[in-house]
């Protein structure tokens, strides 16, 4: 217990207090933003060089949900009844371009904790001490939530969506022959969107903690959130079919409800005494009380230099 209090005191004296006193003009903020952005670009580029050498393997992993279903009980991939689907490319540089896209996305995914850390380090001087105490855990949890969203989409959403769509086309008598660009774009977009969907409860919790929203406000706009989730899904889905729109919109709204529950637990505490007594106007006398109230102005004293000034 003593060690924990010592760590808190060290953080307060060495980290929070110096940042609290840190004042920077606008140009220094821009220079700091440029420096942090340069470091982020360099780190992402280094990871991109590494992921590009394994781009073919990563593309093969993206093909797994196409003709397999993940079984949670056995933690294994089971082949589906779909026929073998060949991939084609329709332009000379299409295959190379898809490898570049896959390598870039995986580099960003691997750098997500570092990106969040640089973002936190840039905005933390503008926050109060009590706000910084929960921003660092929020950054860690948000990175974990992003990875959980990617995993959930890869193991459950993509196999279900791809199996339904391909089976529908095969049952209609069409021969499945998919462009590598269309398939990779479909998978990467789904992975990215579901990674962001899992951030919705954390975003609502953070806004509630900062006092920007509260639970009654979120409940009051619940129907608009339901409508907005379908509108966003209609814009974000790579295909116009309602099936993909539903499997993206329903989790989005579900996490909005989870965010309401989380905002109720982590809401910003009200200051002591707020809302308990309503402040009365200073010129309203209170009967039976010994509190002095300002006297109404009389014609003889109105406008004089010795007018009574009430205590605020």
Descriptive key words:
disordered C terminus, 11 helices, 312 residues, 4 strands, globular, 2 domains, mainly alpha, two-stranded antiparallel ribbon, single chain, two-stranded parallel sheet
Protein model, in words:
There is one protein chain. This protein is mainly alpha-helical. The protein folds into two domains: 24-198, no CATH class; 214-269, no CATH class. It has eleven helices and four strands, in the order H-H-H-E-E-E-H-H-H-E-H-H-H-H-H. The strands form two sheets. The chain has a two-stranded antiparallel sheet. Strands 3-4 form a two-stranded parallel ribbon. Helix 2 packs across helix 4 (94-110), helix 2 (26-52) packs antiparallel against helix 5 and helix 10 crosses helix 11. It is globular and about 65 Å long. The two termini are 45 Å apart.
Please outline the major beta sheet.
2 strands, antiparallel
Intertermini distance = 45 Å
**What would you call the shape?**
globular
Sketch the topology as an H/E string, one letter per element: HHHEEEHHHEHHHHH
* Poorly predicted ranges: 275-292, 299-312
